[in-house]
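User: quick one - fold this with copper (II) ion bound?
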Amino acid sequence: MTMRKKLWDRQSYLAVLAFILAGMLGACSSDSGLGTGTQLNQPAIAEDQGHDHHSDGAKEELLHTEWSFQPYDRLAGETLQLELRIADADGEPVQQFDVNHEKKLHLIVISEDLSYFDHVHPEYTGNGLFRQSLTLPTGGKYKLFADFQPTGYAQTTASTIVHVEGEHTLEPVIEDQVRVKTTDKAAVELKVSSLAVGGESELTFTFRNPKSGADLSDLQPYLGAIGHVVIISEDLDHYLHVHPVRELGSGPEARFATRFPAEGMYRIWGQFQRDGEVFTVPFTVKAQ
Ligand SMILES: [Cu+2]
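Assistant: Sure. Structure tokens for the protein plus copper (II) ion:
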């Protein structure tokens, strides 16, 4: 226990180095002394977006993100306080963030086996600092993705990994044979126009009454859009950008466009709202 304590403390003092290239969609960020020290000096976890860090001629601006969690002993089922600090190339706190889909920062939390998903909006307390309390239900590894856009910068995704102590089992990630998921708000069918790597893919969600099967056209806006879709690869390396084909609508269909960057399994979480309640439907597809 002493050894472990020491490790946590040591890590907590190490500056956390996440270098984000805001000149391109993506960003890479390194781990912030979470769990395994070996990851401290490795930038670049998210591999998908713009990892060739040279956008010809475009001015690149570095951002630094620092993730910290309290307490250092992270236990399953206990509340953690996350602080996320965002600074510019000179280390000065970024002050202004554009509002995107009604929020300054969107935080996605995913467990290693993709079975746990959360989408929250940390509070901006000023001076580049966002705060969020999180309760992670089981032990194991989680990846956090923060989506934000400092004013004057490009849309940015930063990520980190957090290790939580406690029991856990890993659920296998299995491709859906039938792409229909039912909640008490809707039976949702997903059609994917193409699962070919590198091509344009259109995702069409169709909403039906879970009891009668009748088409639904009373979806409500969620975060200012017909829905919010997050897609992550099984290895947690790829966080896909997804755009609604039409921003607004009420059903029975909602369409989104994306591109699968590499072969493999992906989990797609669609979030929609009806009767004042947000519901989430997960699907698993295989790109090849
Ligand atoms: Cu959000």
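One thing worth noting: Residues 1-60 have pLDDT under 50 and may be disordered.
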